[in-house]
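User: I'm new to structure prediction. If I give you an amino acid sequence, what do you actually give back? Let's try with this one:
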Amino acid sequence: MKRVLNSKHPEINLLAFRAMISEHHKSPYSLTLANMTCSKVRVFPAITFLLALLTGCASVEADSSQVQAAATFPDFSSASIGDAFDAGKINELEHRMQKFVSDGDVKGIAILLVKDGKVISHTQAGVRRIMDGAPIEEDTLYRIYSMTKPITGVALMMLYEQGLFSLDDPVSKFIPEFEELTVVKSYDEEGNFETEPLERQPTMRELMSHTAGFAYGLYGDDPSNIAFMKKGILASPDLTTLIDRVASVPLMYQPGESWFYSVAVDIQGAIIERLTGMSLGKYLSLHVFQPLKMNDTGFHVPASEYDRFSNVFGYHPVSKKFQLLPYEEAEYNVLGSVAFTKDSVGMESGGGGLVSSLGDYARFCQMLANGGELEGKRILKPETIKLMRTNVLDKNLTVSISGTLTQAAGGELGFGLDFGILHNTDNSLSKMGDGSYFWGGAAGTWFWVDPVNNLYFIGMIQSFPHGGPELDFRGISRDLVYEALK
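Assistant: Good question. You get back a string of structure tokens that encode the predicted 3D arrangement of the chain. For your 486 residues, that looks like this:
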């Protein structure tokens, strides 16, 4: 029987798929786009195809001296290239983003580049809706999927600042259902496996850095991920059910043994509910969205705002044509509902369930760039933001997906607390500042914050690219931004 070791499997590019989707599965969910290293994927009969996937414990001392002077939220209409960027290169960035639309690679796109609290570039092109050709506009709403994760992480760290948990606390202190977790010891190709007891309980730090040992049920042929798929864990109707189902599945690894992109942020959402006595959605609304004036962000799109909601597109698995989702053939709609209406959303997914606008996510990024504050509203202390954006992985742990940074070398990729981290950047790969942090969403959205250069970038598209051309929206935008930076 083989032992699971650090996910060292043959490389395949896959888009994570939702397991056991049926007409009863209402929880919108997906994985961050990434370049992923994983084994062959075992597919259940309900899943007929996979979508292609695009996309290191150190202590941190407070260092507020690194925080830039707090900037107010930028006005989109005030874009000015200024002296820090080459104007011609910024034009190249904007034209290349627009070219994705004119070439038919996406139906609509919007980008925002902000430095020192000022808009350098804001451009949008294409349509949000096919039927009537309604254009992408400043208030267009997008499915941000795994770009939900940093928001949930910030919300949880607000409770950390209140002393409600420490990063060394065992997760089972808040989720007692996890006290009796076991770990897969070995398994074979026929599905037989052996388990062993936990050597110790996974910690909150490990939960927030995807090193606790949990599976995801989105990819992998190991017993834990297969069980996630069979049990429909990501399609749970609520977080209580999700926790019960996760508790019945053995961990992939002993805590701290490996990095594996996991269900961890949904578990964090459940912990927020238990610590506060509120639903995740209510807590986020009261303590994150309202203070930051993120008025367009939530787990569903209100009927009164549905006209602003972008269509989402994919390459049909048979026709190979880029077309509107959902497909007419129900068996090909492996993502579940993409409607995000109130009656189509079940579980409030802290890992992948939010809808937002470019402007709202910019308010979130500006708060991060400001060291936890926006327009007089402090969400987190500067030292907490720095903790979140600092690599917490041991040097022997490898991040197996690269989020925004599709060409990043493994030695440069780390992970903080619900952020991917780029560190050790003294090479030719990228001009991104050391300690830049980032993530993305399965429908193509992406962002990064560069604290060295005090800038951030957000890109919004709504596209699942499997079956189409290999397009690196994220890498191209990154390269053009830093080519333009003087």
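You can read the tokens as a compact description of the fold. Here is one thing that stands out. The two ends are 55 Å apart (CA to CA).
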